[in-house]
Target: FAD-dependent oxidoreductase
Amino acid sequence: MVSVSPAPPPGTVYAATCPPLPEQPVLREAVTADVCVIGGGFTGLAAALRLAQAGRDVVLLEAGRVGDGASGRNGGHASTGLRLKQEELERLYGLEVAHRLWDVALDAMTHFQGLIASGLDCDYTPGVYRLEHRPRAVEALSRHAEHMRRHYGFEALTPLGPADIRQRVASDAYCGGLHDAASGHVQPLKLALGLARRALEAGVRVFEATPALAVRDGVPAGIVTPGGKVTARQVIHAGNGMTSGLVSAIDRHVMPIRNYILATEPLPPPLAASLIAGGAAASDSRFVVYYFRVDRNRRLVFGGGETYSYRDPRNLADFVRRHMLRVFPQLGGVAVAHAWGGTLGITMSRMPYVRRIGEAGLAAGGFSGRGVVLAPYMGQVLAEAALGRSAVFDLFAGLPAQAFPGGPALRAPLLAAGMAYYRLRDRLGL
Model:
């Protein structure tokens, strides 16, 4: 058996396999702009790009490097739809709103596919398997596929029984699933950096290593950084789970959680081809979800595992590898080349948190695992709202948003309790 390296190289496999963006300057002076965008991930980059294309003078502030948050660290699954199924949206909001939300979800995927068609190379590969680990829940997948076909005209979902799924995913961990032909997967850092290059070409002034420390509300607003200040007529809050302490309303509604991923060494071609049929990605039905795909370098990229605090496990590679082997025990002799963590934003409802913030601010975040498609789209939605066209923004802003109880001070214990509860449910197959 090949032992796993106790200390794979730091950083993601994505950063190791794509050209970096040239370093952008640190803000060290007072500047003015039409719009200040806080956050250099999918949402902020897409918003800045759209606003610059509309002729606005845009400054973008990123606390680290562009794409270094969840946008450049996630599993790369580009999924159609929102985090909640349409049946649940119908129950929560009624048929009319549920259908409007589905139309928006389709528009988000059209926007995403348009980025790829326009030449933004991010290794897009079609196909996703939705895997079910609970035998009693397999029949519900067929009902869901039929519901989507009959009531929404969506015919991309194919139900798969136990024999079908084992022919497509080389694992005994699952007893059924769906093939989603309308979804796919990408190299997410390539997507983020592609958006960043386009934003720079459009004239966006990007400042890295420049966190926003405080925002003074008003028109114009003032955004304070360690070495400078931005005065802007509008502010786009696009930091998702990465700007805790900046805006209390966002902190109450978007919780940052840690997620962990590994990438194996390149697999022998026959083994790589055997794991998931057709080059598709896969995710499962656990609350603490497992998600995985084989990338274009024949590496298995596998995400899974949870912690009860914001501290990373001491050995990330071994931590995630234990989960990988529950799905693919045949990979026991395969070495881990990279292992990393990242912070994403979730909401109580698992629906995006979209709101106006004070006099000058617009915010969107909490994509709850659907950010590859939704975050760039919501960046465009924020930009359109800033330009005075706010129909989609207003749809999401009108949805109820439940705050996390206790506020930021109780995030860690609430996270521990919640993850322990759902981990038990997953183990019991509930």
User: Anything to note?
Assistant: The longest helix spans residues 95-117.
